[in-house]
C-alpha cells in the first residue's frame, strides 16, 4: 500500500471513529463535550498552519475565535429577541439597537462575518506587522498583547458586547433548541464534518507550492526574500487563513456550549491552544488536531477528579514535552516508527526524521 | 538535540486511548444513577476550585459541604443521606455551563448549589431553565433577574445597595464617587445608585471602572482627590481592592477623611488587603462573623473547628443557608422532584446565622436583614446599622418610585 | 490644570514600576533570547519572600527582603536555567512555552504553600507619609519605588560598563560565537545573567507589596506590561527600557486621566503597534551583521 493510500485510509478510519462510533457510544452530553474539543481542534488546525508550518507563534488566536463566536452570538441574540433589544442591552441601559448590531440580524451576513471579519483583521494586522519584519518573539508578544487589549475592550463595552457575561441564553438555533439532545447531536456532526473538510483543505495547502514556500519562510525568511519572493505576503495569507479557521471554530462553539464570553479569548486560553498544538506535535496538522482534542479531554476529566492538580499536570506535561520531545506526540511516534524500521533493515535512517527544524 | 526518552511518549500516546475508554465508560453509568435513587440523594456543588475566583468560592463550597454533613448527621432528607458531587467551574463561565450540564444529565442530581460571579450564573441559567433543573445561587448580585429555576439566597439590590445608600444619606453624605471593576455587577449597581441619588438630592461626582485584576490606582485616587466627594461607593472586585486601598491609604485618605462604602469586601478579603489600610471603612452585607445569635455562634464554632483559622463571611453563610433551605423544602414536599420542591419552598422560614430568613415564593429570593458594618482593627466587622427586620426581596425594584425605568 | 500637573509624578511612578518589573526581562530576553513567561512568578516569589520575613523583621521586612528576594528569585532563575533553558538556546519561541509551563507550576505551588487568598505585607511605618508636589500628593511608597528603580538602573549600568563580568556579558550579547571563541565561558555568563535578571524580578516583587496585592496570581497582572516595555525599548537595551518604561508610564497616566483605565490599556497597545511600524526592533537596536 502506498504511503498516500495509507494516509487516506487512516483519515477514513479516524473519520469513521468520530462520525459513526462516537455518536453511537456516547450519551448526548459527552458528545457535546467532544464537539467542544473539536471546536478547539479547528482553531488548533489554524495554529498548526501558522506556527508549525509558517513559524508564526500566534498567542492571540483567541481574538479571532472570539470574533467568529460573537458574530454568531449576535445573530442568535437578535433572532431570539425578535425585533426587540437583546436581554443584556436592556439591563445595560441601552435603549436603541447599536448600528454595529443591525446587519447581524441577517443570518447570511452573520455567517459570512464569522469568516470575513477575522480574516480582514488578521490581514490588516499581518500587513502592518510582517511588512516591517516584526517576527519571532516580537510577533508572539504583540499577538498576546492584542488578546489582552481585545478582552479589555470587549469587557468595557458592556452595552455593546454583554461585558464579562458575554452572550448567552440562546433559545433558537436555526429552528432548534440548542440545549436539546437532538440539536447537540446535529451540531456535533456539523463540527466534526467542518473539521474534517478544513483538515483536508489545510493538508492540500501544505502540500502545494505555497505550502513549500511557507516552510521555506519559516526556516530562512531572508533567504526566501533573496530568491525574489515576498515573505510578508506568504505570512499574511497564512495568518489570515488561520484566523478564519479560528473564527469558524468560535462560531461553532456558540451552539455547542451555548455561550461566548471574553474569558475564552484571553491570554491564557489562547496560550492553552498553542500548548495543545505543541503537545500533539506542531509540525504536522494531525498533531495539532490530536493535541487539542487530547488536552481538552484531559483537562475536563482531570478536573472532575482533582481540580487543583490540573495546573501541575499541565505545567509538567508541557515542560516535559518541550524539553524531551519538542516535536510532540507525533514526533515521538515518528521516532519510534523509524527506530523499528531501522531495526528491521539496518540501513542509515533518513536524517530528517529526527532532526528538529530550527 | 538529545534523543527523547520513552516516558513522555507513553504519557502522550496514552491520552487519546484513555479518552476513548473513558468516554465508553460514561455511556454505561450515564443511564444509571439518579438524584434520588438508592439510599442517597445526589446534589451538585459547582464552584470555582481553581483560577482567580477560587479564593472566594472555595470557602462557599466548604460551608455548603458542612451544611450537608450536618443534615446527614441528623439522618439526611427523606431518610436518605445527601451525597455531594463536587465540580470545578475553573473561574471560566463556559465551563460552568458545561459542568452544570454534566451534573444534571450524567449525575442526575436533585439540585445544584453553585456560582459566584454574575457571569457564571448567566452562563448556567439557560442550562437549568431548559433542563427544568434547580440551582441555588448564594451570592449578593445586581438584581433584575428572577429565573423560575434559580433560588437566590444572597441579597438582591434592595437588600444591600439601597440600604447602604440610605445609610450614607442618613450620615449627610451628598457627593458620591463611584469606583468599580468593569463588569455587570458594578455597572448595574451604579445605574441604581445614580437613580437613587437623583431622587434623594445626592450628586454623583465621578464614575470610574477599571479592568478586572487592575492594580494601578494612582490616577484614580488622584481623580477622586480632585472631585472632593463626601464618600466613595466601591464595587471593585477581588485583588483590585487590595491595590486600591493600599494606594488610597498611602495617598493620605482614611476612613475619617473620606469614607468608602464597599459591597464586595468581607472578612476573608480584609486579611489580604491589610487591616491597617481599610480600618474604619464601611461595608454592606447581610451577615458578619460577629452577628449575634445562638445559631451564628454554633455556625462559627462548627466552621472554625472544621477549617482551622477560617473566618466566616456573608456568601459562605448564604451558601450554608441554601442547603438547609433546600433540605427543608424537600422534607415539606416529600420528594426531590423539582416542581414539587419549588412549590413547597414558597414561604419556608428558617432560623439561620443571619437571623430569620424566608423564601419569597413569587421571585424565589429570600427575605434578608440588611446590615452596615465597620471594619475593626482585628479584621472583623462590627455592625453599626441594621434594617431591624428582614427586607422583602424586590429584584426589579418595583416598589421604589425612583427606580422606574431601570428595568 | 492642577491635577493635570499632578499626573506627571503619577506617570513617573507608574513608569518606575514598569521599569522595575521589566528590567530583569531586558537582560534575559536581550542577551539570551529567552522569553521568560515565568518572570511574573519570580516577581511573586520576591513578594512572598517579604511576607515570610515578616515573622522576624515585622515592619522592616520590606527592607530586609530586598537583598534576600534578589537571592531567592535569582536562585529560582538559576535553577530554571540549569535544568531546562540551557537546552533551548536558539529556540526563543520554545522557551516562551516552556517557561509558561513553569509559571503554571509555580502559581499552583504558591497556592498550595501560602493558600489561595492574598496575604498581607505590612509596609514600614516611615513609608506611610507623602509629600506635596505640584498640588497633589506623592506617597513615600511611590518615591521609594522610584528610588529603587533608579538604584537598580545605576547598579546595572555600572556592572555592565565597569566590571569584567559585565564586559563579558556585553560581549556575549553582541556576538555569542565570537565571544565564545575569544575565550569567554558563555555558559557561565548565561547562568549569571539569568541569576541577575531573575533576581531583579524578586526585587520588583518586594517593591510591589507596597502598592498591590500579594497572592498566587500576582505575576499574571504584570507580565504582559513588562514584555511590552521590553519590546518597545529594544532587546537588551538598558536606556531603551528606561525610556520605554517612562513613556508607557506617562501614556498610562494621561491616557487614564483623559479617558478611563480600560481605554488607557487599549491606547497603549495601539501606540505600541504604531510605534513598531516606525521602529520594528524597538527604540534602540543592537547592530549586528548576522543573517537570521
Automatic annotation (TrEMBL), chain A:
Keywords noted in UniProt: Cell membrane, Membrane, Transmembrane, Transmembrane helix
Residues spanning the signal sequence: none
InterPro entries attached to this UniProt entry: ABC_transp_permease, ABC_transptr_urea_perm_UrtC, LivM-like
Principal location listed in the UniProt entry: membrane
A GO molecular-function descriptor: branched-chain amino acid transmembrane transporter activity
UniProt GO cellular component terms: plasma membrane
Ranges that cross the membrane: 7-28, 34-52, 59-76, 108-130, 137-156, 186-202, 237-261, 273-298
Membrane topology type: Multi-pass membrane protein
Record-linked Pfam families: BPD_transp_2
Superkingdom of the source species: Bacteria
Localisation per UniProt entry: Cell membrane
PANTHER family the record matches: HIGH-AFFINITY BRANCHED-CHAIN AMINO ACID TRANSPORT SYSTEM PERMEASE, SLR1201 PROTEIN
Protein name (Swiss-Prot/TrEMBL): Urea ABC transporter permease subunit UrtC
Lineage of producing organism: Bacteria, Bacillati, Actinomycetota, Actinomycetes, Streptosporangiales
Automatic annotation (TrEMBL), chain C:
Cellular component GO terms held in the UniProt record: plasma membrane
The keyword Transport is annotated on this UniProt entry: yes
GO biological process: amino acid transport
Similarity annotation: Belongs to the binding-protein-dependent transport system permease family. LivHM subfamily.
Listed GO MF terms: transmembrane transporter activity
UniProt keyword Acetylation present: no
Localization per record: Cell membrane
InterPro entries named in the record: ABC_transp_permease, ABC_UrtB_bac, BCAA_transport_permease
Upper taxonomic lineage: Bacteria, Bacillati, Actinomycetota, Actinomycetes, Streptosporangiales
Protein name per its UniProtKB record: Urea ABC transporter permease subunit UrtB
Keywords from the UniProt entry: Amino-acid transport, Cell membrane, Membrane, Transmembrane, Transmembrane helix, Transport
UniProt topology in membrane: Multi-pass membrane protein
Regions crossing the membrane: 12-37, 57-80, 92-110, 140-160, 192-214, 226-249, 261-278
Organism (species): Actinomadura rayongensis
Family matches, as NCBIfam families: urea_trans_UrtB
